[in-house]
Amino acid sequence: MLLKKTGFKVFFKSKSVRNRVFRGSHKYPCMGFWLVRSSGIARIGYENSIDISKDVNYSLNSFLNLLNYNSIDDIVLKSKNGKYYFKENLLWSCNYHLKILAFTKSWRTTENIKQLARAVEHLLSFPTFGRPVYTKIKSYYASPCDAFINPVEPFNSSKVKGAWFDKMELFARCGIIPFSKRLLNEVLMLKETIDNNSICQAYVDESYYKNWGAYSGLKLEENWRTETKKRCDITFRALMIINYAEEDI
């Protein structure tokens, strides 16, 4: 969500622009401190203590709106200098919307869960868009909050992307996997890596998995100096995804 260095100071000196972006405005796709704030409130289980209902509904609608498009080309423009950016006032989903839904309950009806699954399945059918997409704020191009452009790379047991575990856990927590053929197939491939001792034998992208930072990090063990510690970490994530995916709605 950080702005590119060009114009960074000027942007933050512009109070009117700053307020619109960071104080709950939904004008700019996949941008705003409200996303981070509400996803944090949801994650610690305070949905019923702090009112985030507006952001929960907005997050659900950001996914359902995906059904109105058939490719990323439908929702982006190209600048003169070759940058792709979201159309203004576009309702589009990102990882923070997914986190808000994954850790809240108020939106959950069988119909909403099925509709969310349908929207995600539709997004996963889009042709791959291999270029970064920015959120344009006046003349500035900001990196959006992990917008869903290519949300999940196909499962590969020889090197599972760290982001795969992250997003698949959130999808599973939302309860949508039984209603999505693509996501269900991903989980079935994950299950094939669980051996007779219930240990996950998949190999992962260690840089994302091991190194904790603002946007990555899944390792819970102190270190991976032994194969046992590595397998414990990977197995924990794998079994958690499988457990949530198989839970009754």
Describe this structure in words.
The protein has 249 residues and is mostly helical. The protein has 2 domains: 8-142, no CATH class; 162-246, no CATH class. The protein contains 10 helices and 4 strands, in the order H-H-H-H-E-E-H-H-E-E-H-H-H-H. Strands 1-2-3-4 form a 4-stranded mixed beta sheet, with no helix packed on it. Strand 1 and strand 2 form a beta hairpin. Helix 3 (33-43) runs parallel beside helix 5. The longest helix has 20 residues, at 227-246. The two termini are 33 Å apart. 35% of the residues are buried. The model is unreliable at 1-24 (pLDDT under 50).
Strand order of the largest sheet: 1-2-3-4
Number of strands: 4
* Strand content range: 5-15%
Number of helices: 10
Low-confidence stretches are: 1-24
Biggest sheet statistics: 4 strands, mixed
The tally of structural domains comes to 2
Q: Give the overall shape.
A: globular
User: Radius of gyration from the CA trace?
Assistant: 19 Å
Give a quick rundown of the structure.
With 249 residues, this protein is mainly α. It has helices spanning 8-13, 15-22, 33-43, 53-64, 95-102, 110-124, 162-174, 181-191, 206-210, 227-246; strands spanning 76-78, 84-86, 133-137, 140-142.
